[in-house]
Amino acid sequence: MIIARVELDAAQRPVAGRLVVADGPQQPFSGWTELFAALQHAVAAAVGESAS
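The chain above was modelled as a monomer; its predicted structure follows.
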């Protein structure tokens, strides 16, 4: 199970903030593409950990 939180910076447009994954690093992002890349990275890391 992946537990994550997206913290948005309301002052930034269109979107910026950080992805906070339980037991993992915070990943800052700026823009939708970076947010989705951070989510994809978090899922890939979780799947890799569960496979080992």
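The chain has one helix and three strands.
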